[in-house]
Amino acid sequence: MKTNEGGAAYGAIGKERSKLLAIILMLAMVCAGAAVLADSGSYAAEGDVVEFSEGSLQDAVNGLENGSTLKLMTDVVLDNPVTIAQGQEIILDLNDHGITVTAFFETRPIMNSGILTVIDSGDGTGKIDSTNAGVNGYGAIGNYGVLTIMNGTFAGHIESDGAAIRSWAGSTTTIYDGEFIGSPCCVNVQGDGYIYGGVFNSESCSSCYPNSWSYAVKNTGDGSLYIYDAEVTGTQGAVASASGYTEIHGGTFKTVHCPNNEAHTADFYALYTAGELNETATTVYGGTFQSYSRVAVLVGNSADGGNQDKATLMVYGGNFSVSNNDAINVIDVDSQTATVPSATVYAGTFDRALIDGIVAAGSTETTTEDGVTVTGPSADEANYQVGDKYFIDFGLALGYLSGENDTIKLVRNVTDSIVIPAGSEAILDLNGFTLDGGITRSTPAIDNDGILTIMDSSAGQTGVIQRSDESGGSYYVIDNSGVLTISSGTVTNNSGYPDKWQGSSLIRNLGSDADNNAVLNITGGHVYQKNFIAVKNDDFGTLNVTGGLIEAGVAIGGNAGASAIQNWNIANITGGTVNGPVMTCVWEASPDDNVYGDSKTVIGGTAEINGALEASYDTGAPSN
């Protein structure tokens, strides 16, 4: 398998040259409008603004104080790239001038490892352009650090296998406006990327340029790409997510027919999400997606090369259409992909019927004279609410969370077992209602591997998390292996018996190993269970109690052996009230030479303990 620039594999998303460049920092520029190369020179400073009119652009960059602006007063021609070093923080003002290159230039005019902001304080006609270098003019800016683009034009050569803006792992790229043209790819993100506006136009076509083609905007790393608004047009394709996470909130994304040859047919998808490089997920909240003659959105890649890793698409809104082919689907899932991809449509408008099985449970598909409209459930039908959207399925609600809407609110009493996977973060507001995990064995009401905060915003604090267990045949109400904070609400169950020792802990806090401790923070709320353990801080767990009420056992008329807290690792109890025994337990040994370590319970601060302080030395090996 071939690799793109930087070593990542490619398939249908396009190619970038596999070459590591030895960059010699010799720079060229144009003096007084003439293409005169110079190795050194001078520049004039005006406060925090340095005006550059002649000499070496690299020298000017090197001489800047952090936070300063370098303002171009003339066009610049380079024969080697300018680098912004790690630790530097500067603003480059194009000021309606251009940074271009000579014919023997190679790579991109600007290579950033620091913190760089690019602006054009003039009429916005400034540009950074490597087109003159031909196939070696990959684009405008390469980013290893933090790059912010406010406006301007950024370009490379169509046959360069490059991207106008190219970022690598660990970087952050933010684009507010500008025009991105010329290169096969306009923006290739491998770190984190944020696009708030701009025009992105790629005329690359695999029929025209078999060695140089790409989607206009693509995510090829393990970071996240967020697009809030953009005008993206591509021949080969508009947006591709081949790795990591991509989230689209608005904009227009379309493919057009090859502008160079009417007979060419290499116009593909407005949105393509496929695990060509790694597992990927794409969420669409809005925007217009229109393909020329292929499906508007394809999920999966059985025929397009690459890894065929898992790909997931979630659609919560947007408009989707195909302009020149009535015989194909508007969204398609390639079920022949080695790891079968998935697509779920919660809401949106489509110019034709959708394939079977992709409309979300609870959503309604309505056929109109213009196609199909999918709407989510109403408030009366839903279980959960995020912002102004309503959901029957918790997983769909979790997928809808964003920085603006970080809370999932119960809107009725629900019987459900909810899962917060690793990498997810949410606030669950009980809102005065009950989440009941039912009675199915080995199914908690909440299974958390991510970061979860539980609260109850109701005035009467009537929100409850429970299972409907009676006596011994039971399970945990909350099983935590991530980071869980309980700030308010009630957690309870009726597991166990008053006269024999059998049941399930109400909350289990269990880490996977010494480097991956589960964390349970109890800052408020009421956690209680009469006949079995209320809070079990299990192996590789850290428990922090700073508030709330925890109760179990005799203190509330239950089994005498029931602990309010049973600790097998690290517990810090510095606040709140505990009614019932606090037991600290340790294993004598384990099959792995006591990898579970010592146990420690620290009690202090304002904590009130109304129960025995107990210790247990278990001669067996752990079994969870």
Structural class, from secondary structure content?
A: mainly beta
Low-confidence stretches: 1-11, 15-47
What proportion of the residues is helical, as a percent range? under 10%
Number of helices: 2
**Total strand segments:** 60
Describe this structure in words.
The protein contains 2 helices and 60 strands. The strands form 5 sheets. The protein has a 16-stranded mixed sheet that branches. A 13-stranded mixed sheet has the order 1-2-3-6-9-12-15-18-21-24-27-30-33. The chain has a 13-stranded mixed sheet with strand order 4-7-10-13-16-19-22-25-28-31-34-36-35, with no helix packed on it. With 624 residues, it is mainly β. Strand 35 and strand 36 form a beta hairpin.
Question: How would you summarize the topology of this molecule?
Answer:
Blueprint: E1 44-46, E2 49-52, H1 57-62, E3 69-72, E4 76-78, E5 82-84, E6 89-93, E7 98-101, E8 110-112, E9 115-119, E10 127-129, E11 141-143, E12 146-149, E13 153-155, E14 163-167, E15 172-175, E16 179-181, E17 185-189, E18 192-195, E19 199-202, E20 217-219, E21 224-227, E22 231-234, E23 239-241, E24 244-248, E25 252-255, E26 271-273, E27 280-284, E28 288-291, E29 297-299, E30 311-315, E31 319-322, E32 331-333, E33 342-345, E34 348-350, E35 364-368, E36 371-375, E37 384-386, E38 389-391, H2 394-400, E39 407-410, E40 414-415, E41 418-420, E42 425-429, E43 434-436, E44 446-448, E45 451-455, E46 464-466, E47 478-480, E48 483-486, E49 490-492, E50 507-509, E51 518-522, E52 526-529, E53 535-537, E54 541-552, E55 565-567, E56 570-579, E57 582-587, E58 600-603, E59 608-610, E60 613-618
Parallel strand pairs: 2-3, 3-6, 4-7, 5-8, 6-9, 7-10, 8-11, 9-12, 10-13, 11-14, 12-15, 13-16, 14-17, 15-18, 16-19, 17-20, 18-21, 19-22, 20-23, 21-24, 22-25, 23-26, 24-27, 25-28, 26-29, 27-30, 28-31, 29-32, 30-33, 31-34, 39-42, 40-43, 41-44, 42-45, 43-46, 44-47, 45-48, 46-49, 47-50, 48-51, ...
Antiparallel strand pairs: 1-2, 34-36, 35-36, 37-38, 37-39
